[in-house]
Amino acid sequence: MAINPEIMPSFDGNAIAVRQKDVTTEMAMARQAQEVQAAMVIAKRFPRDEIESYNRIMKACERASLAESAEYSYPRGGEKVTGPTIRLAEVLARCWGNIDYGIVELEQRPGESTMMAYAWDLETNTRQTRIFTQKHERKAKGKINKLDDPRDIYELTANNGARRVRACILGTIPGDVVDAAVAKCRQTLEKGEKGGKPLEDRIREMVTAFGDLGVTKEMLEKRVGYAADNFTLKDIRVLGTIYNALKDNMAAREDYFEVPKPKSTLEEEFSNQQPHKEGATNLFGGENDAGTDQG
Question: Is 52 exposed, middle or buried (0-12, 13-18, 19+ CB in 10 A)?
């Protein structure tokens, strides 16, 4: 039996795919709304004990590992800007309790993404949001590189969204609690954690960590003003805030350190400035041919 294609029903594959995507999105939104409602009900039923939450924060700030990464600092307009890092902010949110926070990609277009960072106190219904557009590009060595790999784009948006999440969390938690946490972290660094690492080990680990960011031991010593073996706990705390700023891409090496020129450039300048003399010692420790005894 022959089938007349004119009477066959037509199917638009793209339209079906769009409808399925819309249904999936609606289901995800409905499920998320139900989860938020359930979280708000639980938060109301089991409100935070602010004294207990405060004590949990102070206890967490006694850990040297947290205290070392609790603050950042970078220069701006001739002044030093300091503040709590995203790591400290996340600890504050977890210990304070009943806070939902994160980052969501609202829309992705060719070359850019629209992101939303948020922090929501489910108990008091206080909400902080930051909406921003992130271009899919990264600047390296004075050159802007376009990103097309999904993993690179995800890492870029997540890293740049972390600062907005931090601002949202700090805008939700009482300011005096944040200040007390920062002061406690500083106290931990000054006194040292009980049974913590020796100062020499902490200096060595710090120098190694800075090396991964392109900052040499000599650059650190030049900024502090003396050899690394003489660094104090205060020096480690100050350099730790700089390390956090560099690691979170809030500043560049040139903002803190004198970055030396490449070795090849220095050698070329040295060679051009030095007059050529007969019998002068060459770069390999011998003598030039001219002026030597041939026989």
Answer: exposed
